[in-house]
Each structure stands twice: as structure tokens, then as C-alpha cells.
Automatic annotation (TrEMBL):
Belongs to the DegT/DnrJ/EryC1 family. The modification N6-(pyridoxal phosphate)lysine is found at K186. The active site is at K186. Keywords: Aminotransferase, Pyridoxal phosphate, Transferase. It comes from Sinomicrobium pectinilyticum. Pfam families: DegT_DnrJ_EryC1. This is DegT/DnrJ/EryC1/StrS family aminotransferase. GO terms for biological process: polysaccharide biosynthetic process. The lineage of its organism: Bacteria, Pseudomonadati, Bacteroidota, Flavobacteriia, Flavobacteriales.
Amino acid sequence: MPGFELFGDIERKHLNDVLDNGVLMRYGFEGMRKGHWKAKELEAALCGRMQVKHAQLVSSGTAALTVALASAGVGAGDEVIMPVFTFVASFESLMAVGAVPVLVDIDETLTLDPAAVEKAITPRTRVVMPVHMCGSSAQLRELKAICEKHNLLLLEDACQAIGGTYEGKPLGSYGDMGCFSFDYVKTITCGEGGAVITNNPEYAKHADHYSDHGHDHSGNDRGAEQHPFLGYNYRISELHAAVGLAQLSRLDDFLEVQKKNYTVLRQALETIPEVIFRKVPEGAEENYSFLSFFLPDEATTRKGHKALGEAGVDGCFYWYDNNWHYIKKWEHLKQLKSLGKMPQEIVDGMRDYDKSDFPASDAIIGRTVSVLVKLSWSEEQLRERAEKMVKAIRGAIG
Ligand SMILES: *Cc1c(COP(=O)(O)O)cnc(C)c1O
């Protein structure tokens, strides 16, 4: 998925615009910037590409999730339902505002199981946070219906799925708010950066103020701004926004290459009847950043993953053993290992995940392998890769 593979002249041009005028800050300094407002331009471009009214750039995807939650007034003791398979940033962001992570099962889409979400709702639930893992959508229609029924916020973590769609809408634009990451390994990158998108003008205004110390951005005099509420510094710099602007303009080209490369690998694996592909919800289209598939059982999957590595197929993930992405190894979360004292609301609200089991998710993740789809492979490399993958997986199945 990495846009970092294809840096070029467009990135350099936008960066040089910023370096030439020297204004690295996204706000103010009108007189010096020679008309360059990279963050503002990127926000406008994101609105266009994602078909939403508002976009707020911030310093990371984690910051985007935090700002989104804060903007909707989510705070201490509120419960946020999220999947057991994601990246650690999902619970970090909500705990940063004092909210309690409520972890629930995934299904064969590798995203939230709507039935598990419904079961986890309590009077304290405020948010459902689906994570469009590995480039493909959660079951958004079902989740939206649950949110409407229980008056909950639907916040899409689309950090790994920019460019994917659901019922024709860009992922991130379907719920009340959506978040993207532009960190170094995402489909498009600016080094470090992120964005919140929404059609809700109130949330958008809050995100604008909250991500810049609560400044209300009124008028031209930064020193004279008011602070309707407390905020923080989650700003993006003009340097990062410049690279992001270039990368967003290339997103559709990247997606096309990803899809082409994904299709070659998928067609090769389709020759093995035991290989079942990750379920993509009806009406959804992936961004093709990963090819994810299931093998018949855990032992075969471990064998297959090992064989892929030994065959030199890089970028293959066995998430079940991965401590970034699956609950099984999130000891720091389960034991609330914090440097300081944890907010009491989190301590009180936290479920005992050492005792809870997620057998349904274990049975899925234990059989899942995901293969990173790169942009820069030559036809020759791609063909070789497909051959090696088929050989390794066939060998593992025996
Ligand atoms: C990368 C990622 C994030 C966080 O993004 P950063 O920009 O690295 O902070 C959040 N959620 C998911 C699913 C991610 O993959």
C-alpha cells in the first residue's frame, strides 16, 4: 500500500513552493506565503475526492481519531465499540479522551461483526468505530442501522482503506465522521499526517478549533483569537501537507496499479481450491492494498506463512501472532499499563480482557494471511511472486 514507493516531481514541486516562501505553519503569515496554503488546498482536495463538506488535516491518523472523538463531545467514561483486529492506535485515540474501549469480535470481512456490536451496547455506549482493515469495508449499512436505532455515532477508521468504497461512497464518508492516516506505510503518505472528514458543520468547526489549541480562527490576528473550549496541538505542517497534496493527486493512479497487482496475485491463488478469500461486503470495493485469504486451519496457515517467508515473498502477515494488530498480544492494554495514573473512568469501565475470550475472532485470524500489495513491482517480479506464493501455499496444504 505504500505511496512512498513513488515519490517524484509533483511532491518536489509542492515542497519547494513551501520552502521558497519559508512558511512552514499552516495558519497565518499571509504576507510571506506568496499565495501558498498547502493544508487548505489539501483539505479542499480531500473534500472533493471524498465527496464531503468538511475535511480537517491533523498530524497523524491517531490524532485524527482523537480529534474526531473530541469534536463529537466524546469524553470520560463514554464507551466506544471497536474490533479486536485493528491497529493499537484505535484504542489509544479513544483512551486519550478518557473513553473506554469495548472490544468485540470480527467476522470473515476481517471487520466488526454487527451482531457482536449490538450485543455490546450499554447505556454508556456513545460510538461505534468500525475499522476498514487491510483495505476493505466494514458492513456499514448494518452498522449504521444499529447506530441510528441506539443513537450512536458512527466513526469510520479508514486509515488503511483510503480509496475503497461502499455503495459507491468513498470509505470514510459513509458514517458521521471518517479518519485517514498518511503515515509512511499507508496508501498515500506525507511522512506523518491524517485527516478527519465529515458532513457535520458542528463537528467540523470543533475539529478545526480543537486541533489548534481551541483557537477559534476568527479574523487575521492569531494573537487575538478566542477559545470557546480547551484544545490541543494536533496541527499538520505545510511541509507535510505539500507532500500530501501531491500524493492525493496520484491516489487514483496508485489504486489502479494496486488493483492490477492484486488481481495477478489473486488469480494465481484462485487455482488452489483450499484458499478462501477475505469476504468483501456486498456493495463494497476494496482499495486493493492487501490480498487477504484464509487457509483451512491454524496449523496449515502457520506452515503457509512460514513457507512464504522462506520462499522470499516479503510483506506477508500472520496477524494472529502480531502484537500491533490483534488483541491476543495487547498485554499493555489488557493490564492498563500506563506511565501515569489512568483516568478512573477507564479503570472502572475496562472489561477484564484477560478472562474474556474471542474464539470466533481467533478462529478467523488464526487462519488469515495478508499479503501487502506494492506499487513498484515489475511484471517479471509480479509473475515470480505469484509463482512462489502458489508453490509455498500448495506445499503447506500438502
Ligand atoms: C495507521 C493506522 C492508524 C493510525 O495512523 P497513524 O497516522 O500511524 O497515527 C489508525 N488506525 C489504523 C487501522 C491504522 O492502520
